[in-house]
Amino acid sequence: MAANLSSPFLGSPSAGDDYLPTSGNGGYSVLDYDLDLDYRVATNRLNGVAVIHARTTMPLERFSLDFAGLSVVKVTVDGERPRKLAETPRKLVITPERPLADGAEFTVVVRYRGAPHPIRSPWGEVGWEELADGVIVAGQPSGAASWFPCNDHPSDKALYRITLACEAGYTVVSNGPVVLRANRSGRTIWTFEMRQPMSTYLATVQIGRYRSRSLALEPVPQTLFYPQALEREVAIDFGRVPDMMALFCRLFGPYPFDAYAVVVTPDELEIPLEAQGLAIFGRNHVDGAHGTDRLIAHELAHQWFGNCLTLARWRDIWLHEGFACYAEWLWAEASGGKSADANAAAHRTQVNAQPKDIVIGDPGPQRMFDDRVYKRGALALHAIRRALGDPVFFDALRAYVAECRFGLVSTEDFVEIMEARSGSDLVGPIVERWVYAKSLPKL
């Protein structure tokens, strides 16, 4: 049934998140992305075809995709050229030849090309970025549109198939296992499949002259990619990843994806970052003396908290960063370092020395990645653990992960599930004090 043309059924050019008001789009949800990319490392030239399968959530005469910095060659909707196509600096606005009914599945094909580059944002440049000899993609929170047309908001998870061809001699790492690799005319074609739902900001491509080594095969393959010059140091620094994996599987529940990869770039990076199924570190995070164990634990923990369980709105960022920060303390405790009690006491003292002017449950877009969001979030979890006791706390935490597996979460979800599974009404008041108040509670 076609949409009623007497009413303007126009998909919103925003997901409605006040932290990123220009990101995301309304009127549909994406089911899967199939990206076919051809990239020239030497000249930073990208030719791409994005096949996007989606379903409408309302009758649609018009809808938009996030897309920035690249040139559109051709667009079709269900095989037909659109009646109208408009490009703005951040959006591709499509008016299909025929209106789309509510609940209808449809396919958009976008052919595009250009020299990909990062997108400027309040948090710096995000997205596709050239290295000295390769590529890093760091999409959080709004950089996915720098390399493919998408619905760039974490609430719209989808499945992915990513194929990329580039010069032979480079290794490509992306989300999910490699399902196909072929050589043709001096170029290598890599195909990856992410079979679990993924938010756009977690989609990535890493390209470099990397060697690889297996870290472990159980519970999933764990692989390290690194520059040859750092072979000795990375073998030491990332040798404990399997032990971290075993600990977090015991505390949080089964690892959620088919594989885990770690990439160490030949360039220095300001901070490490996570993507779904992998983590990326710079050469400056490697010292051959386990100097960044806490960061390695932090990024691994994001596979549960951030990637498997993903915030529905950016204001709940503490659900990602507070949990990953607390995982640092759990690893230290389990590996013979400081106890979580000692880490909590030390970090509360540090936070107490800073201004009491932030509510980490709604820090505002400028403070999404403020260190207090990380540390107060971890302190909130430690306070809940102390109130419930270890057996009850970790049982409830595993239940929270299991019930929300591959879905979207909010602070309200966390409190509701933790209280229901622990049989305690203490979780809500603790969250109120640590997450929704500016004053700093005592432990």
What does this structure look like?
- The protein is an alpha+beta fold and 443 residues long.
- It has nine helices and 22 strands.
- It has helices spanning 231-237, 241-252, 293-301, 318-334, 340-352, 371-388, 390-403, 411-422, 427-435; strands at residues 28-40, 45-56, 63-66, 71-77, 84-87, 91-95, 105-114, 119-121, 124-131, 134-138, 158-167, 171-174, 178-184, 187-198, 205-208, 211-216, 222-226, 260-264, 273-275, 278-281, 310-311, 408-409.
- A hairpin with a 2-residue loop joins strand 19 and strand 20.
- Helix 6 (371-388) crosses helix 7 (390-403).
- The longest helix is centred in the last third of the chain and has 18 residues, at 371-388.
- The model is unreliable at 1-7 (pLDDT under 50).
Q: Can you lay out the helices and strands and say which pair or pack?
A:
Layout lengths: L27 E13 L4 E12 L6 E4 L4 E7 L6 E4 L3 E5 L9 E10 L4 E3 L2 E8 L2 E5 L19 E10 L3 E4 L3 E7 L2 E12 L6 E4 L2 E6 L5 E5 L4 H7 L3 H12 L7 E5 L8 E3 L2 E4 L11 H9 L8 E2 L6 H17 L5 H13 L18 H18 L1 H14 L4 E2 L1 H12 L4 H9 L8
Parallel strand pairs: 1-11, 17-18, 18-20, 21-22
Antiparallel strand pairs: 1-2, 2-7, 3-6, 4-7, 5-6, 8-9, 9-10, 11-14, 12-15, 13-14, 16-17, 19-20
Helix pairs in contact: 2-3, 3-4, 4-6, 5-6, 6-7, 6-9, 7-8
